[in-house]
């Protein structure tokens, strides 16, 4: 009987644990180590020079649909190691001439060329350990169009790769801040967004919202979205309509305004502080709530933006969905709780109870463990373990929970993890680089999440991040999901036997 109850308890605990973990979906320039789309063209850099494809991107002449009408080259991917021989199906439509195609600074062969009804097809053979796929197209005549490069294993018009699906299917919530390039985009108008029909999805505005909806529906996962900081009301309303009509009705939507708008390294911080000054001096939209601390100016304008987002989503989804399916989040800082306190006091003074408008507030729950003195695995393990055991105090868990209970809103982590990256976002030393691929590192990850779970009462934790990155992600390449680190993560953290 005791054994039965122990098993039952562990089963319930594991279920709760896995349900509380979300993940930030990875993005790397041209997704070098991350296969999101089965059609590699969607995530290529763009059409460039025919001799040096990494140059003149965006300058090649195209037709009205964006397909090239002059000789061009294209960096499909680079810096990405093949763990096994690859065979891709290359297809495109010929206008009037069969082009000459060559590999540039990459290894491969082109075979099985066929042309049927002006549709060109061939197989690209790339060997194991090849790190890039760069092609040159010359003598194209009046142009070519509808180019696709797809791994031959996909036979049924699949949109997303099986590796991407496998990487993310164990999580409860997916955050798309990086896939939408929120820290780079300055988009204001809906008409200027990346569209689903666009040839390339690797744009400054990130991938199309329609693909984000497709990812969520395919995986049946809740989504965490970030509204671009300059997005106007029409943009927000159009996005709300798209989500209401496209997203599976059983899926929840976490909504955050921009990302880390308090962070002075991002353009959203500068822009919001300028907005604060303008609106206080001209008495436009912001309430007369002057703050002495320069730091809080951006955070209060952000609150006004969030209130506006609340109003628009309420109109589209209905007020009853706010804090139910539609979950609006205030961005804050976990360590410096004065930020969220100032925001919540402002909301209460001018709008009433914050939980009427907001589901919760969130911060980045990182543990910084960079230490150049670490000489071996044992040193690194002990150093990280000590940091983890002190995390409740260092990251102000109790203080944040106290605030959340006072205002009756949730406390969450929009990002978090064990950070061994320095200011240059590289591992501080080679041995640490190797340690994060070990079983011991994964055990420390679980201990860290267990502590978060215990102190915050199973609050949602968005791990940073999922994909291919030595410092942050679960794998070095999404082509290699059989590596020990990812296998252990599934087993220890993601409840791989539970299929939601």
Q: What can you tell me about this protein's structure?
A:
With 500 residues, this protein is of the alpha/beta class. It contains 13 helices and 16 strands. Residues 1-19 and 496-500 have low confidence and may be disordered. The radius of gyration is 24 Å and the shape is globular. An 8-stranded parallel sheet has the order 15-14-13-12-11-10-1-16. A 4-stranded antiparallel sheet has the order 2-3-8-5, with no helix packed on it. Helix 7 links the parallel strand 13 (326-331) and strand 14 (360-368).
Number of strands: 16
**For this structure, what is the CATH class of the largest domain?**
Alpha Beta
The proportion of residues forming helix, as a percent range, comes to 25-40%
Rounded to the nearest angstrom, the radius of gyration is 24 Å
Determine the structural class based on helices, strands and strand pairing.
Answer: alpha/beta
- Corresponding CATH architecture of the largest domain: Alpha-Beta Barrel
Number of domains: 2
Query: Any low-confidence stretches, pLDDT <50, length ≥5?
Result: 1-19, 496-500
Taken as a percent bin, the fraction of beta residues is: 15-25%
Q: How many angstroms separate the termini?
A: 28 Å
- Global morphology: globular
Q: For this structure, what is the CATH homologous superfamily of the largest domain?
A: Glycosidases
Question: CATH topology of the largest domain, anyone?
Answer: TIM Barrel
Reading the helices and strands in chain order gives HEEEEEEEEEHEHEHEHHEHEHHHEHHEH
What about the largest sheet? 8 strands, parallel
**Number of helical runs?**
13
Q: Report mean pLDDT, rounded to a whole number.
A: 87
